[in-house]
Design a protein that fits this description.
Length: 431
């Protein structure tokens, strides 16, 4: 790759402030998803961009945000076939009550991205990986028949191939090959100008090739390519598994962000009424006066039922940490479950609930149809596990996603103390 093709371009300087880095990150993410959209529509409107599969929020105007969210949700409803979208909040400013507004209009909780940043002057080099593995930039490679390569979407192949021929070039697709077999890949997205940086996306290594240095080598190669182009910085979103890999290359934590998800099944369902949206938003914002008024304009069942995004009003109160709203809902007849009480910090309520409603320990909820014990194990919350195991469980219950018992989850996540506790309870409850 030749540096002279972009040597006149501007990039974010080495002494960038935190604010400048966040601005650069936001611009790079937006550019990436706009480029991946190909010839599909991209909408930009007062700090929000949306296109197929992605929403990016870089600024929030409180006077407009509700209408904007409504318009973008309706835009996705008009796209056929229906396709869900992830919403990225791309600013260092706390999102305030944005989550409440999103939940009320169909979005649901999603993972918390971990943004990591590498100043390329501190790039660590000379990483080792298997000698039979080669890393190269791919141009017009056909669709790879690799079923277990993370983040590899065959639909993106044609777009990435087309972007390889756009001049000046801004996107490079890198792959790790063992012989003719693809064992890993990622792509580099470059933005230019005063906030120009490199963005590393879709890093993935097949399970059989992990812990061999291939991910580190791919990240190293992408960063070296960014440096050759002229970039001084590269940013990425790290998974828990990937974080150690990126630290070895020279990345440091920039902080955690926020994302929400809009599912295609939510888009396919009937839209909520304005009154229902107002009630759910009031719950998420902890606006009790508005909640009193909004509740008069909806049927009582709305307080108890899940909206199309799978969230009940109590779920929204918990997600937004609105204890006052949760108290209001309980006073109006909504049943308090064990995890909601725990997540609201109402630990003293757990023994009371267990004594009066022991059947709650076997309640399966959420997309995975997990019991409270499953969830406590996933979270590695030993205190909650101990508290839940005070009363007998049906330990044969399997979750709805993976078909595994709570003990199976404890083994999968390698929680030895939890395994011992569950096995002791199994023995005790059989007597």
């Amino acid at each position: 790759m030749k540096r002279e093709n972009m040597e006149q371009e501007l990039f974010l300087g080495v002494n960038a402030t935190i604010e400048q880095r966040w601005q650069a990150l936001s611009l790079n993410i937006q550019a990436c998803y706009e480029r991946l959209a190909g010839d599909r529509e991209v909408v930009r409107e007062a700090g929000i961009m949306w296109t197929c599969g992605h929403v990016a929020i870089s600024a929030v105007d409180v006077s407009q945000i509700n209408e904007q969210i409504g318009r973008l949700v309706n835009w996705y409803r008009r796209q056929l076939p229906l396709q869900g979208a992830i919403c990225w909040y791309l600013t260092a400013t706390p999102p305030g009550d944005l989550a409440a507004r999103m939940f009320a209009r169909g979005f649901e909780p999603n993972w918390q991205p971990h943004w990591m940043w590498c100043e390329l002057s501190y790039l660590k080099e000379h990483h080792t990986y298997p000698s039979n593995v080669s890393i190269r930039v791919v141009e017009d490679d056909p669709v790879w028949q690799v079923d277990n390569l993370p983040y590899y979407n065959k639909k993106d192949v044609a777009i990435l191939a087309a972007l390889a021929h756009v001049q000046p070039r801004r996107v490079w697709h890198l792959a790790a090959f063992r012989g003719q077999q693809v064992v890993g890949r990622c792509f580099l997205n470059v933005t230019t100008g005063e906030r120009g940086i490199g963005g590393l996306f879709s890093m993935g290594v097949i399970p059989a090739a992990r812990k061999q240095g291939i991910g580190t080598a791919l990240a190293q190669a992408a960063c070296e390519l960014a440096r050759q182009v002229g970039c001084h910085h590269v940013v990425l979103n790290a998974t828990e598994m990937g974080e150690p890999v990126y630290r070895r290359v020279g990345f440091q934590s920039m902080g955690y962000g926020h994302t929400w998800y809009l599912r295609d099944r939510t888009l396919a369902a009937s839209a909520l009424t304005e009154e229902q949206v107002a009630l759910l938003e009031a719950v998420g914002r902890g606006d009790i006066a508005l909640l009193d008024e909004a509740s008069k304009r909806v049927e009582e069942r709305v307080l108890h039922e899940a909206a199309p995004n799978g969230l009940t009003p109590l779920d929204i109160a918990v997600r937004c940490q609105q204890s006052a709203s949760a108290e209001w809902l309980v006073k109006h007849g909504v049943c308090l479950d064990l995890l909601s009480a725990w997540d609201l910090g109402w630990k003293e309520q757990i023994p009371i609930l267990l004594a009066s409603h022991p059947e709650l320990v076997n309640l399966q909820r959420g997309e995975w149809r997990a019991t409270p014990l499953h969830t406590a194990i996933q979270r590695d919350d030993l205190e909650l596990v101990k508290l839940l195991l005070v009363v007998p469980h049906d330990l044969s219950i399997k979750d709805g996603e993976f078909g595994s018992t709570a003990l199976g989850w404890a083994n999968y996540f390698e929680r030895p103390e939890m395994i011992a506790l569950i096995e002791q309870c199994q023995t005790r409850w059989k007597r």
